[in-house]
Amino acid sequence: MRRIVIYVAMLIAPVFACFAQPLSSDRLERRWSQLYDKACVLYEEKKYNEAEHVLENSIDILKQNDAEGGLGHVRSLALLGRIYHERQDLYMVEQVEAKLLAIKSHIRPGSARYVRAQYEIGVYYSSIGQYQRSIDLLQETLKWTETIHSIPGMQSLLLHYMAVSYYGMANIQRAIECEKECISHDQENIPEYRIALAYYYYLNKKWPELEQILPDCYENAREPLLRQFSLSKAADRAVYWGKKGGFFYLYLPTFVYEHYSSPLASYAYDAALFSKGVLLAAENKSSEIILTSNDKALIKLFDQYKQLKSKKNRSLEENVEMETLSDILLRHQKEHKYDYRTDFRIGWRDVQERIGDHDIAIEFITIPQNNGTVKYAALSIKKGYAAPHLTKIDDVTKTLTMQSSGIYTSNELYDNVWGAMEKELDGVENVYFSPTGAFFNTGIEYLPDDMGINFCNKYNTFRLSSTKELVIHRVRTLRKAALFGGANFDLLPSNDTLSFQQESHDSIRTVSFDSLQLDGLRGGSVASGFSYLPGTKKEVDAISKLLVDSNIAADLYTGDNAKESAFKRLSGTNIGIIHVATHGFYYTKKGSDQYFRMDRDFRDMNYSVIKGNAHYAKDDKRLTRSGLILAGANNTLRKKEGKTSGNDGILYAYEIAGLNLNEVDLIVLSACQSGLGDIDASEGVFGLQRSFKLSGANSLVMSLWKVNDDATRILMTEMYKNLYSGQTKREALANAQLALRSYNNGIYDRPEFWAAFVLLDALDQ
Fold this sequence. Notes:
The protein is α/β, with parallel strands linked by helices. It is built from 35 helices and 18 strands. The strands form five sheets. It has a six-stranded mixed sheet, covered by helices on one side. The protein has a five-stranded mixed sheet with strand order 3-2-1-4-5.
């Protein structure tokens, strides 16, 4: 036995000897970086215990390889100190400080390593609120001029963080002086320095100085974003925007709200054009570059990529394939990087050139407050304006929390929003507006004035993702249609059809999300399941007949055929209209709507330990909380165990986003809550409307609340009659609403019946 043990020990000894050998400097750097980067992400996600553990491992790796005392060690300790500061563990904060100073004491003063360590420690002091110590340390470091000049950008960095520390001490004038000196030494046009100076000018109400630096500040903030966007994948763009985008959707709206001037209003409007849905626009631009390339092989690869992306459950091999295809598509995007950036440079004057003498273009903006509330304002353009005009909107928070019926029967919200713009609307016939904040989930175009006249009946209203649509909108045709309705929600996987009870005509297209928890779908149970909607079958049958009579081909998917798989097969086809009449769902998590305070954004910009904010990279997560219910969904919901397939009857928004619907001109979501979703400060609504926009669809009709089955059938049928009698999409929906209100002596005249549906991005005049 002893011989066997000795023999085994001899065999494994070389293995342990291999592990005991010090890592090469390159391998050590990579290993430490991996651990540190992981800790940074955990720290940003406030997972402090996990981050602490990973950081301790990163320090152990350095110790085991006799690499203590380097910059990596300093950075790991500094982040540990920030974790202890967050926990208010003063003893451990003191321990970290002692270790940092011990490391510094062993570095030759005045060396490059010494200067870098001083800088890291100075930023650390600033991040934990020890501003004077940070200033003293950074100021002392600036004395080593020869060394500083040998390190590119170091002088500006030291001065910038001195300014940030002065800001922390509320000494804004000194912050301004330091930041100006920082910029005078900056050879790389770092955007953060100019944004910081603009912020300090704002805090000190130095409006002329702020306006003077705006052109340089705006260009220096926008162009690196465009360069990064044109060279990156969607996830990387999201992270980068999370770190760099606040200047456009937060700072500039706040600046102009606090002090109106022509320069501030001009840049604020341009910022709205740039920032609203910028990640959505970037993704669509990437798709457009590929689909207009006339490269059939490339387009085929793109379709394969989209198919994989829309799958619910991808295998490891499929994930690898998707990443490989993504790399190929990215190479093509990089080759056309200059074409990629064009649409993002559209400004308010470009929009002004596209509107007529009786038109107005309006960008609604939000101004988040430090107390957690949000203020609203409108920037408007008309012919002849030398700059956009600003209209402040009274606090609408209380009004927006009213029930839908209250909003659309009272003139209170109308007075706050449209009443405030009365002078701007003088002589106007067509109103092109882009909503923001809670306005995304509110039909502000339907609000009644004090005479009970709805805004949409006083003006021709056009709800747009951005008024930039007036410049870039591309006309498509209403050719072949695909109609989904009357789905058999009880369809079994074997395709055996269960009998179901016919519901009454006043059935509600709704879903209780108490029973549809996304993370627990496979194990949840639903007592009754989704009820059959007889009106949806009548609806699509009537629309199909109308289309056929208008010489429009229509594929009808009803009963067992209204499947998720059938919907997905529309990807990459020449379908022009998709109509879905079914249950829809949306639910939100508490606090899911994202607004950022400017002071918090400024702190994140300067003290974030990773490039970006993890929240912004989670599009797919937020697109799992809305979707459409198709054939077989009840069988999925009632499952006690086992995995569901990718075609389980529940079509999530993130699956739709992975489809190629670039030929589709009109999506009609004749379902409840199909226009709702989580609200993001710049990206808008994360729900079905975003998913269909990501898929490439043009115009959307969608609902803002639970809709009545029979009333919706009448509305939709009437809308298609109007559409194929020569009316525009806007006219077709508006006149269908009027017809519904007068139907059968006005039984559907209440807003709950006719005002649920809004039309997005319909500019076919």
